[in-house]
Amino acid sequence: MTPIAAGSALDVARAVRGGERTARSVTEAALEAIAAREPELHAFLHVAADEARVAADAVDDALRAGRDPGPLAGVPVALKDNLCTRGIPTTCASKILEGWRPPYDATVVVRLREAGAIVVGKTNLDEFAMGSSTENSCKGPTYHPIDPTRVPGGSSGGSAAAVGAGLVPLALGSDTGGSVRQPAALCGTVGMKPTYGLVSRYGLVAFASSLDQIGPFAGSVADAALLLEVIAGHDPLDSTSLDHPVPQVGRSLDAGVEGMRVGLVDELVNDIAPDVARRVREAAEELAKAGAVVEEIAVPEMRLGLSAYYLIAPAEASSNLARYDGVRYGLRVEAPDVAAMNVATRTAGFGPEVKRRIMLGTYALSAGYYDAYYGKAQRARTLIVRALDRAYERFDVLLGATAPSTAFAVGERTADPLTMYMSDVCTIPSNLAGHPAMSVPFGIGDDGLPVGVQVLAPALGEERMFQVAAALERAAGARWR
Ligand code: GLN
Q1: Residues designated as active site
Q2: What is the pLDDT of residues 432-442, one digit of tens each?
Q3: Which of 328, 350, 375 is a domain's end point?
């Protein structure tokens, strides 16, 4: 069976716009590929086959009528199931949203449709995006596309596995502490978190609002650039949306890295699995060979990231998740009075990790503990922001690992939440700072599974970041051809 992604998003859109393939035939191929691999992968929570066919036919009709359906004409896209899709179930992999069908599309979904993309389904995730392995889904885990005994990473593991397995050329995820980049690294795809505010979050179910961003998964840097340019840009429906021109990330992919100043971050290469560290160092060497000025830099404040994040994110989550009360959405467990109904619904509806976060967050915010925990975490956040600002006075981009190891075994880290949290140690600092960062596949680890190298940039530094990512992709291609 040839996977649909035998064809990048760019190739598919070109072929559809040029009349060589119909959007309908591309969609059928994607649906077939999904049906063939789903039993072992479990990447999808919902396959919207009928809606996808209708959308594909509309693209073909537009073409026949002489209209251009847009830059993603006929390209199948999968959406993490915390993005609202009108009339299509949106569950966040939580029992508490079972049966809920949003009355509106997220802004990113509207933009995808306007660009001619075909939404083929909703992908699995850790419940409410809380996790690093997609094992916290109320519907059961997603499995790694290359080795089914391993996890795909998380929390956007379904989107990562769908692109990694070649079922769809593009997918969207959300990244609060690394949930696009970490699974992208583990599944061997490109994954990117935009600058805070660059992509509208209207219609993204909120986890931690000062950190959440939606980001693309793709099989190549160029495809990720194409998708980012479609979804980015100001949206009056999101009050945190930046009113700033969209960085033109696709135009400098071939520009190379001559003279670019690259900082190899000690904290993102030491204390991680040696096989991953080796690849990161090789990536730095490749950039140097291509003309970049590469130097090592210590950013010790980054070590505060994990602890600060696991106070700030749960604190915000405890507030955001208060809305699931048995009245407004999905599940309701009947009880004699409203307070008892709230408790019964939340007890039955939330899984163990979500409950843990709500309790941690509520505790961190409670009177008497606020200064010691939440307040202190915010001060640590400021230290990280300042340290990164200083680093970017010397460097255009920073380089490090995306994840501290390759894909780990299913069940390996579920018993100990702290071990699971450690999976995010390399990705969290960019979320706390609101900066963009992306993961590019760069060879394999000792176990034969993909390694991701992370490129970090200052706020709105996407264009250079993509330029470096593209250089790394070329170097990886030349090395492991
Ligand atoms: N794995 C991290 C967490 O569990 C990050 C999640 C995310 O980015 N959504 O919170």
Answers
A1: 80, 155, 179
A2: 999 999 999 99
A3: 375
